[in-house]
Design goal:
Number of strands: 7
Structural class: alpha+beta
CATH architecture of the largest domain: 2-Layer Sandwich
Radius of gyration: 20 Å
CATH topology of the largest domain: GTP Cyclohydrolase I, domain 2
Number of domains: 2
Strand order of the largest sheet: 5-2-3-6-7
CATH superfamily of the largest domain: GTP cyclohydrolase I, C-terminal domain/NADPH-dependent 7-cyano-7-deazaguanine reductase, N-terminal domain
Largest sheet: 5 strands, mixed
Order of helices and strands: HHHEEEEHEHEHEHH
Strand content: 25-35%
Shape: elongated
Distance between the termini: 36 Å
Length: 196
């Protein structure tokens, strides 16, 4: 993000709040290093919460194709960057997204884009995981969807319990990924292959 971009992209209201935070922690917003901080933070927050201005259904329906394939489609290691809604601190990691087609497939990049739609919002990891899975289920009506998200949360690492090596894993299994242990295990084994 270029700080020379026009100020019109930043919310004056948000800039005022950032200035208030700076004063609240004992800083001088007029200090040389902080003069443009409200603008930078406002523009950064707009980017980091861009998911509120995106529609997962539109993203997915933009690249749906008929197909007779019925084998698992898996996109692994999709980078996830989000903000914890409780502390506005980042959490980050990776998502693994799979589905079993039922007459339709979707462009692979759209699966990664859907992760962005929901991660670029104020989030909790549990809801993020479910939203990704449900949006794919709704758009494609596949035989099943599996989503696994692994992330590290700065709200746990740099404050509170301060456990720097902690990570959180969440999953959402729909259709055959929930009802058929063989399908679920295949998905989890394929995800594990990336660590070998």
């Amino acid at each position: 993000m270029n700080d020379s971009d026009s100020q019109s992209e930043a919310s004056p209201e948000l800039m005022g709040h950032v200035e208030g935070i700076l004063r609240g922690v004992g800083e001088d917003p007029e200090r040389e290093g902080l003069v443009r901080t409200p603008l930078r933070v406002a523009k950064s927050m707009r980017f980091l919460t861009d998911g509120y201005r995106m529609d997962a259904s539109a993203v997915l329906h933009g690249a749906v194709f008929e197909s007779d394939t019925d084998e698992m489609v898996l996109v692994k290691d999709i980078e996830v960057y989000s903000l914890c809604e409780h502390h506005l601190l980042p959490f980050f990691g990776r998502a693994h997204v799979a589905y079993l087609p039922r007459g339709k497939i979707v462009g692979l990049s759209k699966l990664a884009r859907v992760v962005d739609v929901f991660s670029r919002r104020l989030q909790v990891q549990e809801r993020l995981t479910t939203q990704i899975a449900n949006s794919i289920q709704d758009a494609l009506n596949p035989l099943g969807v599996g989503v696994l998200v692994e992330a590290q949360h700065l709200c746990m690492m740099m404050r509170g319990v301060a456990k720097q090596n902690s990570s959180t894993v969440t999953s959402c299994m729909l259709g055959r990924f929930r009802s058929d242990m063989k399908t679920r295990n295949e998905f989890l084994e394929l995800v594990r292959l990336s660590r070998r």
